[in-house]
Predict the structure.
Amino acid sequence: MSPISIAAPPSATPGFDPASRFPPGFLEGFGVRDLPGGYLLATPGQPLDQVFIVRSGRVRVYLASEARELSLGIREPGDVFVSHTPTFGETLEPVTLWVLGTREFAARLAREPSITPAIMRVLGRILSNAVALVEDLAFRDVPARLARFLVRQAEQRGVMEEGGCLLPLRLGTEDIACLLGTTRQSVSSQMNQWQREGLLTRRSRHALLIHDLPALALRSLASSG
C-alpha cells in the first residue's frame, strides 16, 4: 500500500479563492446569491434551470425517497452543480453562490472553448467522488466505507501532531451516515468500537484524533464479500 500523504485540497486551504479555478473573466455576468443554512436550493423536477458555483459555504447534494436519503457528495468552494437533475441540493451552512442560467452557461462554453478544460477538471472530480460512492456501496461493508471516508478526510484535512492525525470534521454523524449509505447508529457504533480498540479518540463533537492512520487505511480495504 502506498504511503499516506497529508495534503489539503485547494478548497480546504486558508485563503483559497474559488475564482482561481476558472479562467480570468469567466465569472463575469454571473449573479451572486446568498442563502442561509438549511435552505433547499434544488429539488427534482423544479422549473429552475441554473448552474451554480459555490463561492463560500457548503451544499449537500442527495437523493431522497419517503424512507431514506443518500448523499452523493458535498459541494465546496469552487464546485459546480446544476438545478435540473433528479437530486436535491441543501445548504449545510450559510452559502454564497455564483449563478447563471444553463442556456447562458452553454452559450458561454461555445463562445469560449478555453473554459472547457477548467470545467471538465471540476466535473471530473465530482464524477470521481460519485464513482467512489457506488464502488463503496457495491463492494464494501459499513466499517470499510467509514474507514475509507476517514482516511480520505485525513489526507485532505488532517494535521499531524503528537499522538496521531488530528481530523476536523465539519459533518455530523447523521451527515456521514447519509454519505455512506448507512444509519447514524451504525456509524456511532463503529466509531465507539474503534475508540475501544485505540485506533482513534474523539477530541470533540467536531474533531477526531486518529492514532493509527495506516491501520485504519487497512480497514478500508476490506470487501463485503
User: Anything to note?
Assistant: The first helix runs from residue 102 to 111. DSSP finds six helices and twelve strands in the chain. The helical segments are 102-111, 116-139, 142-157, 173-180, 184-197, 213-220. The CA atoms of residues 128 and 136 lie 12 Å apart.
